[in-house]
UniProtKB/TrEMBL annotation:
Coiled coil: none annotated. It comes from the Bacteria. InterPro entries: HSQ_synthase_HpnC (IPR017827), Isoprenoid_synthase_dom_sf (IPR008949), Squ/phyt_synthse (IPR002060), Trans_IPPS_bact-type (IPR044843), Trans_IPPS_HH (IPR033904). It comes from Rhodoferax lithotrophicus. This is Squalene synthase HpnC. Signal peptide: none annotated.
Amino acid sequence: MPSTMTQKQPAPADVTHYENFPVASFLCPPQLRPAIAAIYHFARTADDLADEGDANTPQRLAELGRYRADLHAVVAGQPHSNTWAQVFEPLAGVIHRFKLPVNLLNDLLDAFEQDIRYTAEQRHYATDDELLDYCTRSANPVGRLLLHLYGITDAASLTQSDQICSALQLINFWQDVSVDVARGRWYPSQQTMAQFGVKEADLQASSHAENARLLIASYASNARSRMLKGSQLACRIPGRAGWELRLVVQGGLRILDKIEALHFATWQVRPKLGAWDIPVMVWRALRMRAS
């Protein structure tokens, strides 16, 4: 269902923070396209405030605070600041028409604020549990918002959606090690790096450390397991939405295949999907069956 998570939006392929957020794609139910696009643009704009440009940490946090205030204003039916009218004008209608769970939109903003502080203050997550806690706010709300639009609210579906969304976020991390390390972002936790005997130098582009391969291999295996646990949701959602989710799932799994093909050395090369991967993903999506 994301991430999945907030970069460019390709045909169902490359996995970054929100690349797998299905933004009004041809498979999306037409009546839901404006609502999905409005939610996407809310998340995309907030991510840009947190991550783009030359603003310093206090400036980014202040801007996100103003953005959150506009969200609270439209929820209350009050005027917003007009700074992001292209976001909040359509979002206001969607919030009220579909009775969106606003706590999920706030969770996304919490995650963006955490990203800003994380980059400025700590560099590493201490444990994998802390990293997964971040995913509950950065990725899982996306899937839950989409399920809400589809009218799916049962606990089993929400749990499976969380598995898919967390998996997509984690796949993004292990795909982007070379990019993130260069920017001073370290998503492998201190706990797991110590378990595998990996130092920061082992994840630099010039490294050929075998223990770093084992680290990424372990993380990739965990992400695959999470994705497979959630994948049955795609077989239970009827119609076009279910087919779109199948492609999202297969896009994530295909990236994991690419990571494995690189012998897990994603601190050297960022794997990505191309047009030639789409037939593979479509074939695998057609073969998915409900258990």
